[in-house]
Amino acid sequence: MQTPDVSGDAEIVRLLADNRDLPCPGCGYNLRALSGNQCPECGALVSVQSLLARPRLSSLLAGVIALSAGAGLNGLLLIYVAILVLRGRGFPPMTPFVMYNAIGLLVQASALLVWLRTWRRIERMRPGRCAVLVSLCVLVTLANIVVFSWTV
């Protein structure tokens, strides 16, 4: 793999960061009005290639996957109940099973919506804070599964 020429990138990076918020690819520090090609917070060398790489994308996607998994579980179980009702199998619509899954779907879908609406803000966070948020997404989904398991 060829190493990019960062000396030629310095002017482009300076122009990009001149009058807009631009997070450092290493630490998330705002590089607005950067004078060189090195982050003043963490010392990382900033190149056009590193700005385009979006290193926190994996954390953002992990949060989406965790929240979508919980919402998907609840949604599919509610669809299953609806199919049973439509086929005349006599599944009562307001059992605890249905209520817990409806509440779980509401919580998971709401959290997913908030996650997607704050995507850019989360992307600019420091890696440690982002990891905490991803862990919370996973914990919400695990709690949802535990509550579901108790109702079965």
Rounded mean pLDDT is: 83
Strand elements, count: 0
- Broad structural category: mainly alpha
Uncertain spans: 1-6
How many domains comprise the coordinates? Answer: 2
Helix content: 55-70%
Q: Name the helix and strand elements from N-terminus to C-terminus, one letter apiece.
A: HHHHHH
| Percentage of β-strand residues | under 5%
Radius of gyration: 22 Å
Number of helices: 6
Question: Distance between the terminal alpha carbons, to the nearest Å?
Answer: 53 Å
Shape: elongated
The major sheet is characterized as: none
Which helices and strands, and how do they pair?
Blueprint: H1 6-16, H2 48-53, H3 57-86, H4 96-117, H5 119-123, H6 127-151
Helix pairs in contact: 3-4, 3-6, 4-6
Describe the overall structure.
- Helix content is 65%, strand content 0%.
- It is elongated.
- The N terminus is likely disordered.
- It folds into two domains: 48 residues, no CATH class; 95 residues.
- It is built from six helices and no strands.
- By secondary structure, it is mainly α.
- The protein starts with 5 loop residues before the first helix and ends with a helix.
- The longest helix is centred in the middle third of the chain and has 30 residues.
Task: Kindly list the characteristics that best describe this protein.
disordered N terminus; 152 residues; single chain; mainly alpha; elongated; 2 domains
